[in-house]
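Hi L., both proteins are below.
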Amino acid sequence: MKHILSTHLIANHRLTTAWLERVRKIGVDGVEIFCARQSFDYRDRAQIRELTHWFRDSELELFSLHAPMYRDEVWGRSGPHAVIDITEPSKPKRIDHVDEIKRAIEVAESIPFRFLVQHLGVPDQEWDERRIDPLFSSLEDLKVFAHQRGVTVLVENIPNGFSSAERLNLLMELTHLDLGYCFDVGHANLMEGIERAYEQMAPRIRSTHLHDNDGKGDLHWFPYSRPEATVQWRRVMQLLRRHQEELPLVLELREVEGMADPLGRVQEIFEKLESERDEEDYDR
């Protein structure tokens, strides 16, 4: 399985080639760049140029990009205008939101990557049938734009009314868009449960997000790090290993203030995940 680290780990710090070099040295295969402008500013040509030169000379892969959720540099705290929502019913606003995501996709013209991970709506948003047509238009537009640049759009299960496993399947049925999924283990743990979500999403899963929580909040904890964590990683790995094709293990973690050597911990987590075996193996 490919080992991929999301730059979500440093989402409050500028993404630099020095940090990427440290990631390369721990032996991971690639990164998913999280498009938070305070970290990776997809509008900043100087930052893109610097990263382009570095990736060109490195064996570390830019595996995927996580679409921006906010257009500002403070997690949307500058006001409602900063929130990016592709279900927006107002056509001018929706087009503006989609155009912002397209700016991120254009990074592929300089640094090729395989997948764009996209949220449907915003966290805790309720299901609203009036938003289905705008959502369809947004995804159709993004799918074509991304494909022209060699990128495949994946939709992610997140804690809202549009993005449970069941609702994602319903949307694919209604829209006939035939998009793949990014299976977020931590989010599934907060919603219908990991095993149930996996079984419903499995035919379309192309990538993953791995992180832990207490079953109540979207905490993005390091796996194996907290006694109150509730994700059963042996079972997760059992499910992922049974997938029809090999899936990447993408760690999407939150920075822990004061943690010594977080990249060393990342390396240990990948080793522990790979050491997990199916239950049958343990019974022998």
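That was the first. Here is the second:
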Amino acid sequence: MSAYVRPDNLEEALEFLSEQPRILLSGGTDFFPARVGKPIKENVLDITGITSLRSIEMTSEYIKIGALTTWSDIVQSKLPPAFNGLKKAAITIGGIQTQNAATICGNICNASPAADSVPNLMALDARVKLQSLNESRILNLEDFLIGNRKTLRKPNELVSEILIPHPKESSYGNFEKLGARAYLVISIVMVGAVVELDKKQTVLNLKIAVGSCSPVAKRLKLLEKEAVGQKIKTIRIEPKHIDSLKPIDDIRATANYRAKIIPELLKRVIKGVVKL
């Protein structure tokens, strides 16, 4: 018989997790659709009552996004221009009802290759804070995600917050997504980027990641390196820049189609930052 618990503080939630593995429930926008018409057999830990986990906090070191922060919270919050890509992603994720319920931490912990937050958060150098009853640890998001629906979260841990180092004032974020339609759609290919520019629109720093084209979204480190010192409008995308990606055939698109689309989205997301 399954057990459902809904604590109202983090310590109690971690105590429940220390006793036995449980499915974590935050927004529920993936959990419930997957179980329509089916009995819930898992032990469920519903963390939606822990109101302290719904926050966006500025500290001297990080911008901290709590585990229950929703996509709507991201859109409505005053954040630096480097977060523009994350905000663009937010308004493409389902309808407003989904954006009001779905959490950004749930999006990364679900670990779908098509998770729209992940390329943007990777471009922001995001880290995740994992907490158990007796300890906490911080991992880079790139290390935390290890495969399709796989993370390094231990059964007795939960992700309590996302930590993002303060971006430079001259950094701008952008996001491009290709789907069967503009909204309410799972991505075929998506790209998140943060570009730091000087006054002449020369690239001082580039961080860019592609999703839906590998088991885990990937930073394009060679492109990032070679873009530095170039004018933003003259950056060229070459095959060597995307060699690390592994597009697949699925119901949404073929691997060949994805491979052809990636360079165009990369160009759009980089050059588009000057229009934001």
